[in-house]
Amino acid sequence: MRINWEEAINQIFASRLTCPRCQTDFEALVVGYSRKPELSPYAPRHRNCPRGDSCEARKLVTLCQDCARSERLRGSTADAGQLLETYMLDCRRDLEDTLDYLAEYWRDEFDLDEESFDRRLEEVDPDAYREEAEWRRRLEEEYLRYHREFRELKRRIPAAGWRAEYVEEIRSLGYDTVLGD
């Protein structure tokens, strides 16, 4: 089973929550993190993962109370507004991971000689850089969608200064971002 992310996020924006497992509407869902591959289909932000349903990465899962109990998902109950904020914060965490990766961690994946150690990822492996840049662009667009929804709902953006800090960090690394200048 694959979740239609666009439909799921539109339901959240409409304050209607549907359990991805039982397809029933609720006013609140249980939100928690899991590494269990069998819960991947219930992790809306985990779409397009190249490892698919066998992925053991930590992912944000949403289920109704009964389904969460059946799947042994531990978490907290969240209404549509709280769920929107949770998704935004999870998206921020992923964007921070991309920053860390571009700044330093990509070097762990390559056997770099001393001359190449100070080079940038796009110089060492252009294909890996393009893949990372595409992933970061999708995350930034997702973040902007959350941001717009908070504005339309006339709700305060949680930790609004985060965006400016992210832009400064990514720009200091020499990369462009759709989150601002």
Biggest sheet: strands, sense, closure? 3 strands, antiparallel
Tell me the helix content.
40-55%
User: Termini separation (Å)?
Assistant: 39 Å
Low-confidence stretches: none
Structural class based on helices, strands and sheet pairing: mainly alpha
What is the average per-residue confidence, as pLDDT, rounded to a whole number? Answer: 87
Cα-based radius of gyration, to the nearest Å:
18 Å
Task: Name the helix and strand elements from N-terminus to C-terminus, one letter apiece.
Answer: HEEEEHEHHHH
Fraction of residues in β-strands? 5-15%
Please count the beta strands (DSSP E, at least 2 residues each). Answer: 5
* General shape: globular
**How large is the count of helical segments?**
6
Q: How are the strands of the biggest sheet laid out side by side?
A: 4-3-5
